[in-house]
Inverse folding.
């Protein structure tokens, strides 16, 4: 892993009668470059799913699945795969926000993503991440921060409504997209009570499941090693988890 530096510069400033009311200064900016094995998986968005012993749930409940954990790892590994294969660039930056002529100063660490080259792979989740990065850049005419990319990605999947189990909703829609394109992945339904109740199970062909599990181990080991050896990546991973947790929390219905 290596980094590149940028010099300190003012991003935004508001003055009144010569007094600085607000100033945002970019203190530092580093691209987090990851040197690791490339082309690990054809479908990185399915690795966390394929690593699960089974995924079963009903139309009435979420079952006993750790939906948040599965969604987090699915997004984490898909994005890591894009970074490793140099489709996406990950940059960490620190901004200082100053108020009332610097009487109040706040430093904030954040991350943004940049698409480096065209993604030509077949993975749906990876494609959606690329799409979200491009959309945020174009729509906001600014860097695609991690939080904005995640929000747009989830919005694009389940919209902006509230759900009892938004992570389950996200994963179910994601899986239905994969099953419509892959003949070795099936969303099996067992309907009961005249269609009022359905039991669902994800079925993956054994050979394909073995490939997903093997690729998961490799990419997960890379992620674990990076967190242990790089504080920058550890902090990024922690921030990534908090963003996803917060974003799904605000989509959870209160009733």
């Amino acid at each position: 892993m290596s980094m590149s530096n940028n010099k300190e510069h003012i991003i935004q400033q508001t003055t009144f009668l010569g007094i600085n009311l607000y100033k945002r200064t970019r203190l530092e900016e580093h691209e987090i470059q990851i040197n690791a094995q490339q082309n690990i998986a054809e479908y990185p968005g399915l690795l966390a799913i394929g690593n699960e012993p089974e995924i079963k749930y009903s139309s009435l409940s979420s079952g006993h699945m750790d939906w948040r954990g599965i969604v987090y790892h699915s997004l984490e590994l898909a994005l890591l795969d894009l970074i490793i294969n140099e489709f996406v660039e990950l940059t960490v930056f620190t901004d200082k926000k100053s108020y009332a002529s610097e009487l109040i100063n706040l430093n904030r660490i954040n991350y943004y993503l940049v698409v480096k080259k065209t993604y030509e792979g077949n993975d749906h989740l990876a494609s959606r991440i690329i799409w979200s990065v491009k959309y945020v850049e174009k729509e906001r005419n600014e860097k695609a921060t991690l939080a904005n990319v995640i929000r747009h990605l989830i919005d694009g999947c389940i919209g902006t409504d509230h759900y009892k189990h938004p992570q389950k909703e996200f994963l179910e829609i994601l899986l239905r997209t994969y099953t419509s394109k892959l003949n070795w992945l099936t969303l099996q339904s067992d309907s009961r009570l005249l269609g009022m109740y359905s039991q669902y199970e994800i079925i993956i062909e054994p050979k394909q499941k073995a490939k997903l599990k093997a690729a998961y181990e490799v990419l997960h080991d890379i992620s674990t090693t990076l967190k242990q050896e790089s504080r920058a990546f550890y902090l990024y991973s922690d921030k990534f988890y908090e963003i996803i947790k917060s974003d799904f929390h605000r989509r959870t219905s209160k009733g």
